[in-house]
Amino acid sequence: MVSSGDPADFPSKHVVDIDGGRPSEVLVATVAALSKTDVASLPPLYDVIDPEALDALYEHVRTRTGGETNGYRVTFPYEGYEVCVEFDGRIRLETP
Question: 40, CA 20 to 30 Å: which among 11, 30, 47, 65?
């Protein structure tokens, strides 16, 4: 769960562009910013998903489809968010 602040202070949905970065790194940096904490203070992402596999799958799908991802996505929980890595270049974070 987000460790600092009242959950009511956070919007229930956030959308972040990956912008050519690695989805795993963008995700962790975004969660750290939202929780106003340091990236190193967060639990390892690999506790819920293999970050290297996520990044490799994302890159593979985007390369093979030429960016036409047709709804490919990976969804998993992380730090109180339902995370959805959209292969069109966005990450959605929603609080339950």
Answer: 11
Amino acid, res. 17: D
Residue 17 parent element (H or E): strand 13-17
How do residues 17-59 score in pLDDT, each as one tens digit? Answer: 998 899 999 999 999 999 999 999 999 999 999 999 999 999 9
Question: Rounded to an integer, what distance in angstroms lies between the CA atom of residue 2 and that of residue 14?
Answer: 14
- Closest of 88, 94, 16, 15 to residue 58, by C-alpha: 88
Containing 54, the helix (H) or strand (E) segment is helix 51-65
CA–CA gap between residue 51 and residue 45 (Å, rounded): 7
